[in-house]
Amino acid sequence: MWENIKQISFNAYHFFDSPIFSIGDSDVSALSVSYFIGATILVIVFATQIKRLFVKKIFPRYHVEIGLSEAVATIIKYVVTILGLIIVLDFAGIDLSSLKLIAGALGVGIGFGLQNIVNNFVSGLIILFERPIKVGDRIEVGGVNGDVVKIAARATTVVTNDNISIIVPNSQFTTNSVTNWSHDHKVVRFNYPVGVAYKEDPERIKKALLEVANANAGVLKNPYPDVLFDSYGDNAINFNLRVWTIDYLTRPSVLRSELYYAIFEKFKEMNIEIPFPQRDLRMVFDNTKTAITDKKA
Prior knowledge:
Largest sheet: 5 strands, antiparallel
Distance between the termini: 108 Å
Number of strands: 12
Strand content: 15-25%
Shape: elongated
């Protein structure tokens, strides 16, 4: 019985170890393919764990900024993965020099069908090295506005204020204009237009707007808010309230709403008129004709 088991095991091993095809001078068997697949999975898992170790354990110990730690850890993951695959191929008995033909064919395939993927991968490396964006940044690109939560090899994940994850190809960040609200720091300035009637005193308006801004807890006192006399409009004199904030970087519409609510109440309290578009219609009659003139108020 034991002899039969040994014979069956030997035959099975011989079957799986028999060459299926050849790459150059190297024979590839089902056993070596299984080994390569299993070892590749282990290399990827190991590289992922190495990245997690650096991000979660090592870099926080030295107070490395989260965006920099993610970038460096991702590069380390790529290096470990590439070195691991080279070692796996070597232990599998595959001569790396015999892969030149495959590399050439792959190059042709890249030129025709994989150019977008390669473009995004190279763009991902550029992002990691140059760091125009990093994890934690507030960005706007191609109509997408949100926080960067992950930078991968092919795409970057951006989460909007509605908690929707949007996957943006990395090439978007190297070929399009990108607004990074927190590239160097997270203090930003917002501009809010305000119009009042022509009869109002500009200095009184400026004082009222600054009182509203300084009363809001989300508006920074340094840099201080200010008010610009913007223009003479058709129906109003227009001002621009400029405020700095750090708390409302990801919620500018909330700060705008709070300030406009407060401005409305302040103007009502001070009897300041908020104008609305008006149109005067004048009709002139005489014995020969009727003239109608249309004039905006």
